[in-house]
Amino acid sequence: MPRDSTSPLAGQTALVTGASSGIGAATVKRLAEDGADVVLAARSEDELESIASDVSATTDAETRVVRTDVTDPDQVAAAVEATVETFGSLDIVVANAGLGIDESVEEISDESYRLMMDVNVDGAFYTARAALPHLREGDGSLVFVSSFSGQYPRPKNPVYAATKWWIRGFALSLQGSVGGDGIGVTQINPTEVRTDFGSEDDNPMNERFEEGEVTEPSEVADAIAFAVAQNPPTHINSIDIYRRDKFTHF
């Protein structure tokens, strides 16, 4: 979809973490369709290159791939600086990188516990910390992809839920801290999304549900695009995306 000056994100630059699949990949495509140039950050460089190539073939957006492990603060800072050096600004950041390991508190290993904390919590913090000075310059938007599990119990995995509760608290307090500087901080809270989230043994979402049963990655990307496209920049605090029968399970 070619862009023009009337595209909602024309002239803006976005950085998306966890961009190699699922929600992140869908978000890259949607923001590019809306006119933004996009930097794709994740560990899987081959997948990032493939997505960037597809975006280049279907939109007029410029892209750059930056291999990034969000658990490494230096790599996150380097991805942010590469974005600004390449495009001259940073207007939108989508902190999407995350993972879930469904293990009980009694059974979870130190490695699994640390990995979820490192990616979901530390990765989000490092991304915000590195991006805020640049977002402040242009009244930018910072979006955290959180979860239904950050608002309601997740009996199967309290540790994963706790990381998303942390995101929720951090996003709310961060908005209080930087809202006066013109920065918008939004959390997106989906329930099940049909992606390869989870390992094969954990029965990933795209195997558990048929198309149309639960949320698609493109629907989450639509919500993100809506939040960052407000002009004038209304603050969208939170968007919940639940399948219609979700609360019948409680």
List keywords for this structure.
single chain; 250 residues; alpha/beta; 7-stranded parallel β-sheet
Report on the architecture of this protein.
With 250 residues, this protein is an alpha/beta fold. It has a seven-stranded parallel β-sheet with strand order 3-2-1-4-5-6-7, sandwiched between helices. Helix 4 links the parallel strand 4 and strand 5. Helix 1 packs parallel to helix 2 and helix 1 crosses helix 7. The protein is globular. The model has no long low-confidence stretch (mean pLDDT 90).
Task: Give the gist of this structure.
The chain is α/β, with parallel strands linked by helices. The protein is 42% helix and 14% strand. The chain has seven helices and seven strands, in the order E-H-E-H-E-H-E-H-E-H-E-H-H-E.
| Multimeric state | single chain
Largest beta-sheet details: 7 strands, parallel
Rounded average pLDDT: 90
Strand order of the largest sheet: 3-2-1-4-5-6-7
Distinct helical segment count: 7
What coarse outline follows from CA principal-axis ratios? globular
Structural class: alpha/beta
Q: Beta-sheet strand percentage?
A: 5-15%
Counting DSSP E segments of at least 2 residues, the number of strands comes to 7
**Fraction in helix:** 40-55%
**Terminal Cα span:** 42 Å
Over the alpha carbons, how many angstroms does the gyration radius reach?
17 Å
Catalogue the unreliable spans: none
Instruction: Give the helices and strands as they follow along the chain.
Output: EHEHEHEHEHEHHE
